[in-house]
Amino acid sequence: MGIQISSNINTGSLSKNSSSIGLTPDEQKMVDQLKARDAEVRAHENAHKSAGGQYVMGGITFRYQTGPDGKRYAVEGEVRIDTSSVSGDPEATIQKARAIRKAANAPASPSAQDRSVASQAAAMEMEAQWELAKKRLGKMKNPHGIADSQDALPAQKNRKPENPIARKYATDSETGDFMNKLLDIYY
């Protein structure tokens, strides 16, 4: 809410009823609003913390406001979550991005900041899926694991791996080469 209150509290006659401690009807209304906001903020941040699991960094940080009754009420909160990708492991990054998105969207009413974090996590997941697809495509293009580096032998560098289907049906190297070329179109 961001409401700033500066008020003196009459402590002359304290009783169990908070409206009896000298609060005006407007001050009591403010206390009721602060209590509701406090409960909302705590529930919101606890939802983030619960859903964030292992990626939560520390506890919940609250910003408080003192009400006309002299008590502190949480009016804003924050849960820090590790949003970095998992270096060299796109599958783990995908899982982490999904957990981050789940944590960001956990509260009943996600804030604009929550939606922004969820959007960033979705982008991180898409990037990791792209990296994983490239990795898998590389394995499909090179199923025999022949090195594709500067130190590879010249014969291996320019030669495609033999297609196992061509090997099965070929009886000589010329037929095998033909089958490899033919199957490369469909493989």
Question: How do you describe this structure in short?
Answer:
The chain has 187 residues and is mainly α. It is built from six helices and two strands.
Main pleated-sheet profile = 2 strands, antiparallel
Mean pLDDT across every amino acid position: 77
Query: Mind telling me the C-alpha Rg?
Result: 31 Å
The main sheet orders its strands as 1-2
Class computed from helices, strands and strand pairing: mainly alpha
Shape: rod-shaped
State the assembly state of the protein chains.
single chain
Overview of the structural elements:
With 187 residues, the protein is mostly helical. The chain folds into 3 domains: 1-81, no CATH class; 83-141; 161-187, no CATH class. 52% of the residues lie in helices and 11% in strands. It has helices spanning 25-52, 90-104, 112-141, 154-157, 164-169, 173-186, and strands at 56-66, 72-81. Strands 1-2 form a two-stranded antiparallel sheet. Helix 1 runs antiparallel to helix 2 (90-104) and helix 2 (90-104) packs antiparallel against helix 3 (112-141).
